[in-house]
Design a protein that fits this description.
With 192 residues, this protein is of the alpha/beta class. It contains 5 helices and 9 strands. The strands form 2 sheets. The protein has a 6-stranded parallel sheet with strand order 5-4-3-6-7-8, with helices on both faces. It has a 3-stranded antiparallel sheet with strand order 1-2-9. Strand 6 (94-99), helix 3 (103-109) and strand 7 (113-121) form a beta-alpha-beta unit.
Length: 192
């Protein structure tokens, strides 16, 4: 979510009316040398590509035909169009896979991870038996969002070192009613 602060509640010292902010309202929303990132042109995938490149990781990315050049501009070393090419026929022995797709893509990813490597999925719990058979590690990851981490991301955005793609801008009335919101984190939005 993102927006402009219109009012402040009691005990909110870090923000002012008029500040632009971004963040999440629920923690469930969302070291390697070569990383395969599935879904590299989506919002999470685009950040993953850029952040991995900042750490000088060689990024191999998968995405659809229309997004191949976009994934390259984000810093992917090699981009595979999943519509025309089976990634398992090209990729071999990566240190890590970031799975933002799931299903057969996740299962096939175990074929390309080197022994000792890791698969991290934000979609579903990976098959631990398959991980054991391929001598890899696999984990399901839920985002652990904090204000400190969001501020670091905001600094990168302000410095134009992390690009973002705004998918839609919605009026608050169209956002729906939040249910069971128990945690939140916010940071000042960088200028767009």
């Amino acid at each position: 979510m993102s927006g402009i602060v219109e009012r402040l509640g009691e005990g909110v010292p870090d923000f002012r009316v008029g500040d632009t902010v971004f963040g999440v309202t629920n923690a469930q929303f969302t070291g390697a040398y070569a990383v395969l990132i599935h879904g590299a042109a989506g919002n999470v995938g685009a950040y993953a590509v850029q952040l991995a490149r900042r750490e000088r990781v060689t990024v191999i990315a998968t995405c659809g035909t229309k997004d191949v050049s976009y994934a390259r501009t984000l810093g992917a070393y090699q981009v595979i169009d999943y519509r025309t090419t089976e990634f398992t026929s090209i990729v071999n022995r990566v240190d890590a896979v970031i799975d933002l797709v799931g299903g057969e893509i996740q299962t096939g990813s175990f074929e390309v991870i080197k022994p000792g490597g890791v698969l991290i999925s934000v979609v579903s719990q990976p098959d631990q038996n398959l991980a054991a058979r391929t001598e890899t590690r696999a984990a399901f990851f839920l985002v652990d969002v904090t204000t400190t981490r969001l501020e670091r991301i905001a600094e990168l955005m302000r410095a134009r070192k992390l690009l973002t793609n705004i998918g839609a801008v919605l009026p608050l009335a169209d956002a729906g009613e939040p249910s069971n919101v128990t945690d939140h984190a916010c940071a000042r939005s960088p200028p767009v």
